[in-house]
Design a protein that fits this description.
The complex is a heterodimer.
Chain A lengths: L4 H8 L9 H12 L6 H9 L3 H10 L11 E6 L2 H5 L2 H12 L12 E6 L11 E3 L2 E3 L4 H12 L4
Parallel strand pairs in A: 1-2
Antiparallel strand pairs in A: 1-3, 3-4
Chain B lengths: L1 E4 L2 E4 L6 H7 L25 E2 L18 E3 L3 H16 L4 H4 L3 H7 L22 H9 L22 E3 L9 H9 L6 E3 L6 E3 L16 H5 L5 E3 L10 E6 L8 E7 L2 E7 L4 H6 L2 H11 L9 E4 L2 E4 L2 H12 L7 E5 L5 H15 L4 E3 L2 H12 L10 H5 L3 E5 L3 H4 L3 H10 L3 E6 L11 E4 L5 H13 L13 H9 L3 H8 L3 H13 L3 E5 L9 H15 L5 E3 L6 H6 L6 E2 L3 E2 L7 H10 L4 E4 L6 H4 L4 E6 L11 E4 L8 E4 L5 E4 L12 H11 L10 H11 L37 E2 L2 E2 L5 H9 L24
Parallel strand pairs in B: 1-4, 14-15, 14-23, 16-17, 16-19, 17-18, 19-20, 23-24, 24-25
Antiparallel strand pairs in B: 1-2, 3-4, 5-8, 6-7, 9-10, 10-11, 12-13, 12-25, 21-22, 26-27, 28-29
Classes of the chains: A alpha+beta, B alpha/beta.
């Protein structure tokens, strides 16, 4: 959904007049768009009087908030201790290469968003990644590419 | 109640922290993030102490003191812990200036900071000898650094006006963030990102210019490191002398420390020992004073027009020429225009010269808003009273902002408003255009342009609705007032203002809720062709609400109030003794010039538009910079600026402030009072025997009660109700918004960074390109 300033204003409006609403209002906006569109902060400033730098500071502090649109599938690649010793760093960089991710964590085709997580709770399968709700373990680079291919084809 | 710190009994007030108690007793506890002007934060952990009966090491800055608490501040364990914390802080702070073995020799040889744009290895940072990290290191013992430094390698941010930011030096103490968000109420900066990537910054890393920053510089003043540094004064090193004086760019008169080096004012820093200036100092005083005063165009010699050309002459010759010339005119043909930036002493002598020596009553202040307000108040015997102060604003229950641009004309006042709002005050904005304070308002009334008086009339009628009017029956013009209200057509009035009825009821509710309200009235009421009507209707409202105080006109120029107090105002001698004989006020002088009734003008600033003075036969102009009036002047006299003179100023609320001379005036410049003395002597007066401004002050102090501290009369009871005006949509006078200036010269004409800031905020027109000739018009577009 393409964000419109008017729509964001409507989401923000009910929070008017209350104090301590920065996090709830950011959550409300992210619930609709999956991320915080750039105009979010100036709208919050206009409507609620919270300076844009302050709400931006909050949004960049909590990992729950995103400043970029999220892909259709979320890849959670584990870099916890077990995965780390089993080569998750190599795996991670090849995921990035494969999806052509540079600094932004989402692929250009809008299909994937990469998140690095600390543990997925199945260390015996290390290295592990999760795509949406499905966990894939004992990964190799080849295996990772195959899995991603199935999502590209619309599977998964 | 007492707390025991290292065996010393230290008294404290309930609610104070251990640190506050210790500071009161002058016990040093090292801190980097705590600051007496800021709320406690607990970030740096350097103030950890051991407290008997408490687990671990609580931070003194955020642990409340309790009666009988035993605190260990100098314990070895505490000291070791602090030293380790300091090590961790130093890992991310370039510290070669602190831990280097050669440090002592290096400092002895090198007098000041090295002009390195960026501090990485062996060079000192721009924080001129006031590094708090060094102080803490000194106290704790300089730690040996076993862990190598982690340089963050962030680009130095140099693209904003006024100050640079090198966040490689930042230790994330959060003082600047707290100052900006919580004290100044601006919120231009915040902590962004988290953990190792945390950085003080703006939204998406934008420039401060694009963001909300008002460039007050308070962040620099509390920064314990050299991360933030003023561009204009960072490389001068230590000042030769520091002189306590004031900033005179607006009527707040914040106390400043002027730093003198090489015979010039190199920096002006808000005097943090005085709560007033600490709180309110702004971009103009913090950053603009040196660049403005040290311009290369400052006048150096008296100039007299000889055969059409301005020629440098000695003072004797200039005075003789003025004296001879003035003798050609009758007293009532001579007019005096007083700069609202001259000292009370100088004004007193200008008054004496004009009224007693020359014998004219044609004298008035060169301030389009100040003149109208002071005349209105002086005519009602309210001008000499002690007015509502900024402390009253901070304590107010509601504040109404009427037609002002205080963010740019009085940037200190929003700080007081923020403080009031934090306390729960309701802020109402009444404006016909966008107001920068909207983010701090609870009720924002955007009225139709030209409907202000209609709005005030409607509000008056609504306020009186549930009240017995009988109590006002004795008041001046009550019958006319009553009649005007009875015939006021409310439906039409409300429609004209564009304000909704429910907004009217909200404003009534707020205003009736408390008498501790303040109305801050800005110069844009001058858009009304009869500003006295607006002032009168505001007076009605205060009268009906039963408020003696609460009216603050936002006087613009530095000493409007003092000049009016000291005899510069038309019709009023020093101390507001009325003139008995007739004369001309400013506007009548201007028409007098056109008609030929006024032949000679003596003025001491260049704020008058030239067309208003065209036709004078003889003109004496004292100024600090050349202006477009020069082509008309017969004599141009170089005058000392506020850093170059002694004397007193009176801030808008009636407080007296002392100017102290920091540097010599350029060339042959004299102070205003010396010039007036010279002119008086040249026309044969022997009364001007003053050898210093102190002599004049003594005479004023002895004879005029309002110049004695705390001797201003209380605000008299209001006994007047002005008939309200008919609902009307006025054709507004042409009005250029005020830009801050000094003696007629807008500050931004000499301070490029200020120009950039004001242009970005649409306060002044943008300059299109460098090729076009600069249109340097110091005139203010006076309303006639």
């Amino acid at each position: 959904m393409k964000p419109k300033a008017k729509d964001i204003r409507e989401i923000v409006a009910p929070f008017k007049g209350d104090r301590g609403v920065t996090i709830p209002v950011l959550q409300a906006i992210q619930n609709v768009y999956g991320y915080l569109p750039p105009e979010t902060f100036s709208i919050i400033e206009d409507e609620l009087g919270i300076p844009s730098s302050v709400s931006y500071g909050v949004a960049t502090f909590y990992s729950q908030f995103r400043l970029r649109p999220v892909g259709k599938h979320i890849i959670k690649a584990c870099d916890g201790t077990a995965c780390h010793v089993r080569g998750s760093q190599t795996l991670l960089s090849s995921i990035k290469d494969h999806l052509d991710l540079k600094d932004p964590e989402s692929s250009n085709d809008g299909l994937f968003t990469l998140e690095i997580v600390a543990c997925l709770g199945c260390c015996s399968l290390a290295p592990v990644m999760m795509i949406d709700d499905v966990t894939y373990g004992n990964l190799t680079i080849e295996k990772m590419k195959e899995i991603i291919m199935t999502y590209r084809k619309g599977g998964g | 109640m007492k707390v025991i710190i290292d065996e010393a009994e230290v008294p404290f007030e309930p609610g104070q922290t251990i640190l506050e108690a210790a500071r009161n007793a002058e016990i040093y506890i090292p801190t980097l993030c705590a600051h007496k002007e800021l709320p406690a934060f607990g970030a740096c952990r350097l103030c950890v102490v051991k407290v008997d009966g408490m687990r671990g090491f609580p931070p003194a800055c955020s642990t409340p003191a309790t009666d009988g608490m035993v605190v260990h501040n100098k314990d070895k364990e505490v000291r070791d812990l602090r030293r380790n914390i300091l090590r961790l802080i130093l890992i991310e702070h370039p510290h070669s200036c602190i831990v280097c073995e050669e440090r002592a020799d290096c400092e002895a040889v090198r007098g000041g900071p090295v002009k390195a744009g960026r501090i990485t290895g062996c060079s000192m940072c721009p924080n001129r000898e006031i590094c708090e990290i060094r102080e803490v290191c000194h106290y704790l013992g300089i730690p040996d650094m076993e862990i190598p430094m982690e340089y963050k390698n962030l680009p130095v941010e140099r693209y904003d006006p006024f100050f640079d930011r090198d966040y490689n030096l930042c230790i994330l103490c959060g003082r600047c963030v707290r100052m900006c968000q919580q004290i100044r109420g601006v919120g231009a900066i915040a902590f962004t990102k988290r953990s190792h990537n945390t950085k003080v910054g703006t939204i998406f890393g934008r420039t401060h210019l694009e963001g909300a920053c008002r460039f007050c510089g308070a962040c620099i003043d509390v920064c314990p490191t050299g991360a933030l540094s003023p561009k204009g004064s960072k490389w001068h090193g230590k000042a030769d002398r520091s002189i306590e004086s004031i900033c005179t760019f607006c009527s707040l008169n914040c106390a400043m420390v002027l730093e003198e080096k090489w015979g010039r004012v190199m920096a002006a820093i808000p005097d943090r020992s005085k709560s007033y200036s600490r709180a309110y100092a702004c971009v103009y005083g913090r950053f603009c004073i040196p660049a403005f005063l040290n311009g290369s165009d400052r006048l150096h010699y008296p100039l007299v027009r000889k055969k059409g050309r301005l020629t440098p002459v000695s003072w004797e010759e200039a005075f003789r020429f003025i004296g001879d010339s003035l003798k050609r005119f009758a007293p009532e043909e001579i007019g005096f225009l007083a700069s609202p930036y001259m000292t009370n002493e100088s004004t007193y002598l200008m008054n004496k010269l004009a009224r007693d020596v020359v014998g004219t009553r044609n004298i008035d202040i060169l301030s389009r808003f100040g003149r109208v307000v002071m005349q209105y108040l002086a005519d009602r015997e309210r001008a000499s009273s002690a007015w509502t102060t900024l402390e009253d604003v901070e304590q107010a229950d509601w504040i109404m902002l009427i037609q002002n641009d205080m963010v740019f004309t009085h940037p200190g006042i929003p700080v007081a408003i923020h403080k009031a709002r934090e306390r729960g005050a309701q802020i109402i904005i009444l404006d016909d255009s966008q107001n920068e304070m909207e983010g701090e308002s609870d009720l924002n009334l955007r009225i139709e342009p030209g409907s202000l008086r209609t709005f005030l009339a409607a509000l008056t009628k609504l306020l009186l609705n549930n009240m017995k009017v009988t109590e006002f029956e004795e008041f001046v013009s009550f019958v006319d007032f009553r009649r005007s209200l009875d015939s006021l057509k409310m439906i039409e009035a409300i429609r004209l203002t564009g304000v909704m009825e429910k907004e009217f009821s909200r404003i009534l509710e707020i205003m009736r809720s408390s008498k501790r309200g303040v109305l801050l009235v800005g110069s844009r009421i001058m858009e009304d062709p009869v500003p006295n009507q607006i002032l009168g209707e505001i007076n009605n409202i205060l009268t009906i609400l039963g408020m003696d105080r609460g009216f603050i006109p936002l006087l613009e120029e530095g000493n409007v109030r003092g000049v009016a107090d000291s005899g510069g105002l038309f019709g009023h001698r020093p101390g507001y003794k009325r003139d008995r004989t007739q004369g001309k006020d400013y506007l009548r002088m201007v028409t007098g010039i056109r008609r030929g009734d006024i032949q000679a003008i003596i003025l001491n600033e260049s704020s008058v538009p030239p067309e208003q003075l065209r036709g004078t036969k003889f003109m004496v102009l004292s100024e600090i910079y050349p202006s477009e009036l020069d082509s008309m002047a017969d004599v141009i006299l170089p005058v000392a600026a506020f850093s170059e003179e002694m004397g007193h100023f009176t801030s808008f609320d009636g407080r007296l402030w002392k100017l102290n001379k920091a540097v010599d005036a350029p060339g042959m410049s004299l102070q205003d009072w010396e010039i007036f003395s010279g002119i008086a002597k040249s026309i044969g007066s022997e009364e001007f025997v003053y050898s210093s401004s102190d002599d004049i002050w003594k005479e004023m102090f002895d004879n005029i009660p309002i110049f004695q501290e705390g001797n201003r009369p209380p605000v008299p009871q209001r006994l007047e109700l002005l008939p309200v005006s008919e609902p009307s949509s006025l054709h507004l006078s042409e009005f250029t918004p005020y830009v801050v200036r000094y003696r007629g010269t807008p500050i931004h004409e000499l301070v490029d960074d200020l120009r950039v800031y004001l242009e970005e905020n649409d306060r002044i027109p943008k300059e299109d390109s460098d090729d076009e000739p600069k249109d340097k018009v110091p005139g203010s577009g006076e309303v006639v």
